[in-house]
Write a structure and sequence with these properties.
The protein is of the alpha+beta class. It contains 39 helices and 48 strands. The longest helix has 25 residues. It is elongated. The termini are far apart.
């Protein structure tokens, strides 16, 4: 026995220690989520007797796994807990390996045993313990997949798990004991070793590793089948595994760096150990040892003063042996790329040498590993290269001053044997073509990637006649005649094989998934493609038919080169394309950028194709890996931006970005990543957003936000494409712990640029196959695939542009660049952030959670019916500003529900459920009966929401695909009221799909909305702008600007978009032209403007196309003035206003209320309410505001010489407070007072006194008439609780005013709801008793409901409507239908009395009454006052007096 072996044996017999070295203490796959000692019986204190009685450690070759196979009887003691405890006392063997190489030559290889650092000599100081899996931890608990169940009673002791293993009847099972070590700082030790080597001036490559042997003990079941199964290298064997126990041996109580917190080491610290072993290690390296460094070396270092015998400069010898002999001339230049494509990636000397053959090579290295065998196979696939050799060159190495060397020509050897020596050492590359390699730039962090010309090649297509794949140039092919309306892209990581020889067992299943219907695409991106798989794939006839074009050919074809790397990105397509390779800063990493021949945009005589960038980024969750991903993303976006500006992009592939919050938090706790890295992970989405790349998965959520079951998914796990919880291959690769969380690694990102719009998104790859002889399934890959279908809607020359008729109606948009001081990129966003206009991420999460809560409450279904009755389809989606993502912190959320029930049924049940969940932060504010129907104003977690409902069964069942149905589709044959409710989501869906740059649009929209509010022109109720109107106006400018630009011009920034917007509408002819989207209304305008409409801003879908129906001449004039003012502020030569200054609100309001340049005279509308019902107060106030437009119209008609402007807000005296105090003060709060102001000015500065006097007289008449009409309305005005007056006042009479931000009506339970509650109870009774199956599925039924149903059936009798004596007052619609359809009544004998919003009460023939909302003469039915019989002038129905002669329930 050698001294080294003797020392090793002595050390093992003395120490007997446990250790499982963790990479960085926490990155080992053996690491568990929690490393704290378990309590109770899970902790096993070892006594001295137990230590001495433990069996000795196994000597000989260092196995990693110790297998124990018992006899045929499965109940032998080896399954008992004592066996596990005994094995836990046998230590693993941690080591340090230090290897130095130069080229293929090994200089030194030393090993140091670290086992003695884990167990102190005093057994009482030992820290090791036995730990069982804890509650909630993912582990193999007796199944074939990791899980969190079962949990054993008590605390899950070793005895309990051992007993469960012994009692398991499975024929193939195993029990694993893992030996782990924690809190050893291997990174610090590695740093010390490398610093030592720097001092020795070692010129080669150093590898420092920390392997561990004897780290696992596997107890196998005795069945012979087990031996066969465990030899199979697959992921799908049906073995039951118990990996629930770990023997933990801490190097120290805490990680290094926690000395201040009381860190204690088992034997000694890392610093102390290094001081003792530094010199022996240095001596072993300097003497080029190949073996162990032992205690004897340490003893010699202490006794003999070893450092003095080690020279300061070690002679490491020549780097290589003197000379090379190589053929010359080299291969012709046209053959170089065939060889250099591999050399560039695998040969470090590639920049120094052309392609060559070494006839004499002084050293070689024998490597026997899978990676080497794959590379040898790859070299064997290189097609043959032939050329004529003229002579041989003899080269010698010449050292340079920079520590480098170059090869010089010593001489030549002719083919006739003559040797010719050159004078001096000549240049070997003289006159030769120099090779510029991207590898020379490796390590540089450039912001923009570069095209790698070497690895860029021609695509291939399958030639049927030759039955071979042939390279081609896409421009040589004929273009497709059929115009495409869609373009589909799929991406799939197919998982490469890493063991040699590679298995092809999964290949047929991968192909089956690729050819599945849900994976069919125009372009397919594959990652981790190997030479073997690509050869197999392209040999499949189905693949060749589906994808006739491929970026690379099959490597097994004799004239095609192998793929450059082991893991490659390959693009297949139905459409001809060419491609280029873009290298990243690391070898083997880059992007395949494809350009499709027949998909793109034409501008004049040029065609700009769609660009697809296929990527596969670096894996890993470390600081370095995340930084590498960030750099790669930045590089590819920079390359696309610079090379293909304003082109449509698609970025697809495996981004390997960890998304699960649980995984990220676990890595942060373990200090595997830093806080800065967490910020970088979150910032990756910002990189995509800044590049205007839309995530196809997220966009699909906007269409159907509740798709999928995310109840068990944590943040960042929704839409996961790598899911160990459902994919067996992913589970096997994850191992356990935090790695078992789902991740959304794969993505498809789209920058549509007005050409592409995301229409549909889905996953694929779910097809599996049974494993023969095992109770498990085979999965095709560890990833799911993604597919995105995009609509093609070009704004270029290929688009179906507006007709000549429409083009003549369009006011052209001329691009206007922002002034220099406003043209800084990002300046608009900065101003919005400073003012708090852009909501924070936390606000976004809060609103998302509130919306989710509302959905859960409304869609809650009783469990009694869940198993027997299918649930009806109910869609709940946000609309308005939240759906378009232009909301601010003060915005409400508009929510639309679509389902198969009646409106009454829905709101009755919804109200009931919302009231039951008041404890969850949901409060019903009020129930509003608006023109579009019933609406609930609610509050969810302090966020206000407006809940509307639309009964449309067919729409709900076809959601969201129905949004892509054309207007001519029969599904839209709905009533006008139903269509009006669906209009909002249809308009928003079209806007999201058609806007060229949603990011810029959203920033500009927020800016315009804030500006409009600050200038007092944002209020649809008063005839000013609304959110949808801003969207229409902005989208119109944005699209028309896109038509005017080309890919060669500068991109449209937010700053230039806003400048163009304001300058365009500053000169827009509102009086004569309509504002509409000519790319939607392309053929004709389904709308005729009437003379009474001063403003027309047309929406997209019917009914009610004009969104500015409430506008008046004064409000339109005010809008024009404000647009002109904004344009002058932006472009004026005397002004230099910043973006933020444009949004300041105080100056505008103060200016209106008498500031510099303000008004001198006002119309003041005083309102007061002192009633007990606050809801009635809010109703009164809303009614007053709705009549203000009528007042403005009358003022303009009677006094056209006056310029009138109303401020869209209520004012109150500045000293009025809404304080909180005693009961008397709170009672006084019910006395609300406020006023509205209308500024008056002369429209013509030359207006004479006489004209002014006449105008003022007309003004008084209008105000007097307004007062009379308002006070005469008994429905809303009650003189006992409210008051209203209108008067002309001077500026000095206003006093000190401020904007009244109080709510004149807050929710009080029971207030104005008693009648509604009765109706709801009746409705619920109907649902329970006589409702449809869908109603029952919505509400649920039971025994009591069945009794009610039977009781109700007995009460059903035939009722004569003409003799209906019920007390319920029938609606105007009921009366109109009765007169029209009752054969005993004549329609021509009746008049309809209605209220014109400009002229007051009017009458009209019933026959001429229009009921369709799309009709120009349509009048809402809520304006009907009465029906009158023409023969005697008698009113047969009167809304005010509740008189109804038609149905017989007369109430005089």
């Amino acid at each position: 026995m050698t001294p080294t072996q003797h020392a090793e044996l002595e050390e093992k017999a003395r120490l007997q220690v446990h250790l499982q070295l963790q990479e960085q203490a926490l990155q080992s796959p053996l690491a568990s989520p929690s490393r704290s000692p378990a309590s109770g019986s899970n902790t096993v204190p070892m006594t001295e007797e137990e230590l001495q009685s433990s069996p000795p450690a196994i000597l000989g070759p260092p196995p990693t796994v110790t297998s124990i196979r018992p006899a045929r009887n499965p109940r032998v003691p080896v399954g008992r807990a004592s066996t596990i405890r005994q094995q836990a006392t046998i230590p693993p063997k941690p080591q340090i390996h230090i290897v130095g190489k130069r080229g293929g030559r090994l200089d030194f290889s030393i090993k140091i045993n670290l086992m003695h650092l884990l167990v102190p000599e005093d057994a009482r100081q030992r820290m090791d313990y036995l730990r069982c899996v804890g509650p909630g931890e993912v582990a193999f608990r007796g199944g074939s997949k990791p899980a969190v169940t079962p949990e054993l009673e008590g605390e899950g002791t070793v005895e309990a798990w051992a007993a469960k293993f012994v009692a398991d009847n499975a024929s193939v099972r195993s029990f694993v004991l893992e030996r782990v070590v924690i809190n050893l700082d291997v990174h610090w030790l590695e740093g010390q070793v490398r610093a030592l080597l720097v001092g020795l001036k070692y010129p080669g490559t150093v590898a420092v590793s920390f392997p561990v042997t004897h780290s696992r003990v596997v107890v196998q079941s005795p069945d012979r089948v087990n031996k066969f199964i465990t030899s199979v290298t697959g992921f799908f064997a049906g073995k039951k595994k118990y990996e629930v126990v770990k023997a933990v041996w801490p190097f120290a109580t805490m990680p290094r760096g926690a000395e201040a917190d009381g860190r204690r080491c088992a034997v000694q610290s890392e610093e102390t150990w290094w001081k003792e072993w530094r010199d022996p290690i240095r001596y072993a390296i300097a003497t080029k040892r190949n073996g162990w460094v032992t205690n004897e070396d340490k003893l010699e270092a202490l006794m003999e003063g070893m450092p003095s015998s080690v020279p300061a400069d070690v002679d490491w010898g020549p780097e290589v042996e003197t000379a090379y002999i190589r053929p010359r001339p080299h291969p012709p230049f046209n053959l170089w790329p065939r060889l250099d494509r591999l050399r560039a990636l695998y040969d470090k000397a590639y920049p120094k040498w052309p392609p060559h053959i070494n006839l004499v090579y002084p050293f070689s290295e024998v490597v026997d590993c899978a990676a080497h065998k794959f590379l040898v196979e790859k070299v064997g696939l290189v097609p043959g290269v032939e050329w004529t050799v003229g002579e041989l060159a003899v080269l010698v190495r010449e050292r340079t001053g920079q520590g480098q060397s170059v090869m010089r020509l010593w001489g030549t050897v002719g083919l006739d044997g003559r040797v010719k020596q050159v004078d001096g050492l000549g240049s070997f590359y003289e006159g030769e073509k120099q090779v510029v390699l991207a590898a020379e730039k490796e390590g540089e962090d450039d912001e923009v990637a570069e095209k790698d010309q070497l690895h860029t090649g021609l695509p291939y297509y399958f030639e049927e006649e030759m039955q071979r794949w042939v390279s081609f140039t896409p421009s040589a092919l004929d273009s497709e005649e059929d115009e495409r309306s869609t373009f589909a892209v799929a991406t799939y990581n197919i998982l490469a094989e890493f063991e040699w020889p590679p298995s092809e067992a999964r290949y047929p299943l991968v192909v089956k998934n690729i050819l599945a219907d849900n994976a069919a695409a125009d372009a397919l991106v594959l990652q981790e493609v190997t030479d073997g798989f690509l050869s197999y794939l392209l040999a499949d006839e189905g693949i060749r038919d589906a994808y006739p074009y491929c970026s690379h050919g099959p490597p097994d074809q004799d004239d095609i080169e192998p793929l450059p790397s082991h893991l490659n990105v390959v693009v297949l397509s139905k459409i001809a394309f060419d491609w280029e390779y873009v290298s990243f800063h690391r070898k083997h990493k880059g992007a395949v950028v494809a350009r499709f021949k027949d998909v793109g945009r034409s501008k004049g005589d040029k065609f700009f194709p769609v660009v697809l960038a296929a990527v596969h980024l670096s894996h890993g969750l470390t600081d370095g890996a995340v930084a590498s991903k960030k750099a790669d993303i930045k590089q590819i976006i920079g390359y696309l931006s610079g090379t293909y500006p304003q082109r449509p992009w698609i970025l697809a592939g495996d981004f390997n970005v960890t998304t699960s919050s649980a995984t990220i938090d676990a890595a942060l706790r373990k200090k595997a990543i830093s806080e800065a890295t967490v910020g970088q992970l979150k910032g990756l989405n910002n990189q995509f957003a800044e590049a205007n790349l839309d995530d196809a998965w997220k966009t699909s959520l906007a269409d159907d936000p509740w798709d999928g079951d995310s109840n068990n998914a944590l943040e960042g796990e929704e839409g996961a494409t790598w899911d160990p919880t459902s994919n067996g291959v992913a589970a096997a690769m994850a191992g356990g712990g935090a790695n078992m969380r789902p991740q959304r690694y794969d993505r498809i990102l789209v920058r549509g640029e007005g050409l592409l719009e995301i229409a549909k998104f889905n996953m694929f790859g779910f097809l599996t196959e049974k494993v023969e002889g095992a109770d498990s399934e085979m999965f095709a890959s560890d990833h799911w695939g993604l597919r995105c279908i995009m609509n093609i809607d070009d704004f270029g020359d290929n688009a179906q542009g507006p007709s000549e008729e429409i083009a003549s109606l369009v006011v052209p948009v001329h691009p206007q660049k922002a002034p220099e001081h406003l043209d800084q990129p990002g300046s608009v966003k900065e101003a919005l952030l400073e003012l708090g206009i852009i909501p924070s991420t936390e606000e976004g999460f809060k609103r998302k959670a509130a919306l989710e809560l509302l959905r859960n409450v409304i869609l809650d279904t009783p469990t009694t019916d869940a198993g027997t009755r299918p649930q009806p389809t109910v869609i709940i989606i946000p609309v308005g500003s939240y759906a378009l993502d232009v909301w601010t912190s003060s915005s409400d959320i508009d929510v639309l529900c679509i389902g198969p029930f009646s409106t009454n049924t829905f709101f009755a049940l919804a109200t009931q459920r919302l009231r039951k969940t008041a404890a969850q932060g949901i409060k019903i504010l009020r129930r509003v009966r608006a023109n579009t129907g019933t609406m609930l104003e609610i509050e969810v977690d302090s966020i206000k929401m407006d809940l509307q409902y639309c009964p449309a069964t067919s729409v709900a069942e076809r959601w969201p695909d129905v949004l892509r149905a054309p207007p001519s589709d029969p599904i839209w044959s709905l009533s006008a009221q139903t269509l009006s409710k669906l209009k909002a989501i249809r308009d928003i869906d079209y806007l999201r799909r058609s806007i060229p740059d949603l990011t810029a649009f959203r920033l500009a929209h927020r800016f315009i909305k804030t500006w409009a509010k600050s200038r007092g022109i944002y209020s649809a109720r008063f005839g000013f702008l609304s959110g949808i109107q801003i969207s229409i106006l902005l989208a119109r400018v944005h699209k028309l600007l896109t038509l005017e630009t080309s890919p060669t011009t500068e991109p449209i920034t937010v700053e230039s978009l806003l400048t163009t917007f304001f300058t365009h509408y500053a000169t827009f002819p509102w009086r004569t032209h309509l504002a509409f989207d000519p790319l939607f209304h392309r053929h004709r305008l389904p709308y005729t403007r009437t003379p009474r409409e001063p403003l027309a801003i047309l929406g997209y879908f019917p009914p009610a196309l004009n969104t500015a129906a409430a506008a008046s001449v004064p409000s339109t004039r005010t809008l024009a003035v404000e647009f002109q003012r904004a344009s002058e502020a932006l472009l004026g030569t005397n002004t230099r206003m910043s973006w933020r200054e444009m949004l300041e609100s105080k100056a505008a309001a103060e200016e209106f209320m008498g500031g510099a340049g303000g008004y001198k005279t006002y119309v003041k509308l005083d309102v007061q309410y002192w009633g007990l019902s606050l809801a009635r107060g809010a109703q009164f106030l809303g009614w007053v505001e709705s009549r203000c437009v009528m007042l403005l119209v009358d003022l303009h008609r009677r006094a056209p010489g006056l310029f009138v402007r109303m401020w869209p807000a209520r004012f109150v005296e500045a000293d009025i407070e809404t304080g909180e105090g005693d009961e008397e003060q709170q009672e006084g709060e019910r006395d609300f007072r406020g006023c509205y102001l209308i500024g008056l000015d002369k429209s013509d500065a030359e207006m004479g006194k006489e004209e002014l006097k006449i105008a003022l007289g007309a003004l008084q008449t209008v105000l007097s008439r307004f007062e009379t009409q308002m006070r005469g309305n008994e429905k809303y005005f009650d003189g006992r609780s409210c008051w209203l007056s209108a008067a002309v006042v001077n500026k000095g009479e206003l006093g000190r005013l401020k904007v009244d931000r109080r709510e004149w009506g807050e929710y009080t339970p029971g207030e104005e709801e008693h009648e509604e509650e009765e109706e709801e109870e009746q409705e619920l009774g109907a649902v329970s008793g006589q409702g449809s199956d869908e109603d029952e599925a919505w509400y649920g039924s039971g025994k009591k409901d069945k009794k009610k149903k039977a009781a109700v059936k007995k009460q059903i009798v035939t009722v004569d409507l003409r003799a209906d004596k019920t007390k319920k007052f029938r609606t105007a619609a009921d009366v109109m239908n009765r007169i029209r359809w009752d054969p005993q009544l004549e329609t021509s004998g009746y008049l309809v009395g209605y209220e014109d919003r400009f002229l007051g009460a009017q009458e009209k023939e019933l026959e001429a009454w229009k009921s369709e909302q799309t009709d120009e003469e349509f009048i809402p039915q809520h304006r009907i006052l009465y029906f009158k019989r023409k023969s005697d002038g008698q009113k047969v129905w009167d809304r005010r007096t509740k008189y109804d002669e038609v149905f017989g329930n007369v109430e005089a």
